[in-house]
Amino acid sequence: MTYRRPEDDGSGRAKRQKTSSSSDSSSQSKDMSEGGVPVDPSAYLQSSTGWSKLKTTPVNERAKKEEADDVKPNPYLTATKDKPGEAKPNPHLVQKNEPAETRPNPYLAHMKQEPKEPKYNPYLAHMDQQQDDGFGYSNGYGHGLKSGKMNGAPTGSTLATFPRHATTAAMASKAEDGPNNPFNGKPLSDQYFNILKTRRNLPVHAQRDEFLNMYHKTQILVFVGETGSGKTTQIPQFVLFDDLPHIQKKLVACTQPRRVAAMSVAERVANELDVTLGEEVGYSIRFEDVTSQKTVLKYMTDGMLLREAMNDNNLQRYSTIILDEAHERTLATDTLMGLLKEVALRRPDLKIVIMSATLDAQKFQSYFNDAPLLAVPGRTHPVEIFYTAEPERDYVEAALRTVLQIHATEPEGDILLFLTGEEEIEDACRKINLEADEMIREADAGPLKTLPLYGTLPPHQQQKIFEPAPKARKPDGRPGRKCIVATNIAETSLTIDGIVYVVDPGFSKQKVYNPRIRVESLLVSPISKASAQQRAGRAGRTRPGKCFRLYTEAAFKKELIEATYPEILRSNLASTVLDLKKLGIDDLVHFDLMDPPAPETLMRALEELNYLACLDDDGNLTVLGKLASEFPLDPALAVMLISSPEFYCSNEMLSLTALLSVPQIFVRPISQRKRADEMKASFAHPDGDHLTMLNVYHAFKGAEAQLNPKQWCHEHFLSLRALQSADNVRMQLKRIMEREEVELMSTPFEDKSYYTNIRRALVAGFFMQVAKREGNGKTYVTVKDNQNVLLHPSTVLAQESEWVVYNEFVLTTKNYIRTITSVKPEWLMDIAPTYYDISTFAKGTVKTELQRVADKIRRKEAMKGGKR
């Protein structure tokens, strides 16, 4: 066989012609500007002739340069010779220092009184504030210890004699080896001891004493452990046995950037400690709290801990806070790090552990004033890295062929394929299953079990990824394997044993925000080199593995950025600013963030909150702003919901807010699109998508649907999971409304103003997301920002209305607005007069039309005055 050097490869990346949005649907990447975002992915992967092979290298060495070897031709990827495209600057990321104008918004007249202060902390509702918890302690909110317990530990527990912050690994091991559970006094099960053996083989266990010594001596510690080292499950337990939070009537918190990780890790640790999930070990995510009075170790999303801080600025209920997966640099994690730096000064008793899966932790050390660093290597085997010899035209198609090639030709071992979103993943699973069934029939291949994994997947389906691979169909048959098709959640948040082969197309969905036109969207973008290394590392967990990168070596070396840019540099900061204001942080410019956002982004956030009347002209939190911060919602949604009693439709807006907070409720299978569209049309309201969604929800709650919800949703091409989730979100939001005394009411359905009131209430929150039709064509222009857009093809709007309010701005090859409802310009000027002050608009069709409407309103008022 003839080989050639990988250095001869052309560089380039794949283009995927799909729509991108803030939902989980597939999408095409957009060009990115310099200074903070990835390169243009349109040049990626445009043809292939085979794989180029690197020499075997242990992934955990994190070599900066990977030495090239020879090309292995891949018969599953036929060559095409398209030239790679060139990277272009993205106009959606142009940052321009324009002065923001802050104006009050007086339209919420009913919000004149200060809301009542909660009588108790709503985030401690699971803790009985008046009664002991029945376990001998009350987490600091009850009557204290009962007799029969020793220092808050069960009678006879070795923990009762432990010196706090002075334990050793040997002492903890003795407690773990005892016949009874040191936390609840119950006999330990055989399963517990089997799991304990596995835990003690994890790399992190060998450095337990080293960790404890450092933990004892310092307030803030940076811990680096590669994925698979055991840091997420074991470090919180090491802390638990040393910090003894139950004796101090406190808790240990461990944050995760993703809900799925918080839930799955909490369940795993509960099993490891032989306790019931929700008791000693629990989790807290948005709209779901699985904790109790007994909880001493709580896994939670970083956003939930941030919300708790709003009601407890010093986080007094926690003795130790562990920020896991800090390298992902989510918006909430970055905000928490800035907050914890300040809390640490006020609370010298609080311990903080920052955990990262990447070795580049010096930045965390510097940020936390040269905090000590402890690094633990992962337990990885050598991983061979393969590149394509030429770029791929369609990364999804190339990925599917590669998975099937692996299944047909490679030894046993499970496969992990990275894709970008729910729709792309579900479609890929369906295609792989069809092809695999044919391979079994025609080529006597082993069974292949394909499993999806993404953030909105229900917990019971997520757990299927940990099930063993299917067995051979006959005693002498080829072994089966499973193929997990996942988003980048599988890079670091979850560790899946048995993965031997990784297929990496080189893309993920990333949030991008352009403050100049106030557009935030999810784009399919090239991953970073750090992400590529993390993905490859998934293949070497249990034995030597292989990683197939569906891009050239030149693209990896020259086009991928070193690390993904922090979310705070590419997000709308309105929610974050509102949170910080509620936390009492008024000097936003000097708030100590690891990577301060661009001034224009911050000014846009302040301007948006001022228009929403959440901040006054001096940047201070208003009554409405305080109330809006109580809701775990985007500020516009929160204001819409709070203002809805003014329009006599708060019950309906409560349902609609819940529907807008969950994944897409409509299902549109590729093979049944026509039928799905017909069923959607049966719910359609001529005025648009919001009212159509409300019609669906009302039907779902009707008697016919409730007899058999699963069948009803299947027949009507609706997502039962999304509708049930909306039901749960609605219930949680209703509790907040009742607590904050926001009145619940409805306009009678037979009243002709029923739907009109709902549309007006939409304007109260989304008056900054309005577009006007240009002439008689199909093009619309967004108000003030003057962006030309089209209505998304999925809309049910019966006719192209002159004015529409929209929920999403979708960036693809064309600009679309999605989830649309028609509105009247008179409502805009009535409900948001400050924003629609005509003198602030530039010359154009929007200003002309608004002037015409204003003149019409004045004539009507003059006529009324004349009659009087």
TrEMBL record:
One Pfam family from the record: HA2_C
Domain Helicase ATP-binding: 212-377
Domain Helicase C-terminal: 402-584
GO cellular component terms, A-Z: post-mRNA release spliceosomal complex
InterPro entries: DEAD-box_helicase_OB_fold, DEAD/DEAH_box_helicase_dom, DHX15_DEXHc, DNA/RNA_helicase_DEAH_CS, HA2_WH, Helicase-assoc_dom, Helicase_ATP-bd, Helicase_C-like
Region (Disordered): 1-105
SUPFAM superfamilies on file: P-loop containing nucleoside triphosphate hydrolases
Keyword Zinc: no
Keywords: ATP-binding, Helicase, Hydrolase, mRNA processing, mRNA splicing, Nucleotide-binding, Nucleus
Main location: nucleus
E.C. number: 3.6.4.13
GO molecular function: ATP binding; hydrolase activity; RNA binding; RNA helicase activity
Compositionally biased intervals (Polar residues): 44-59
Cited function: Pre-mRNA processing factor involved in disassembly of spliceosomes after the release of mature mRNA.
Family: Belongs to the DEAD box helicase family. DEAH subfamily. DDX15/PRP43 sub-subfamily.
Protein name in UniProt: RNA helicase
Gene name, Swiss-Prot/TrEMBL: PRP43_2
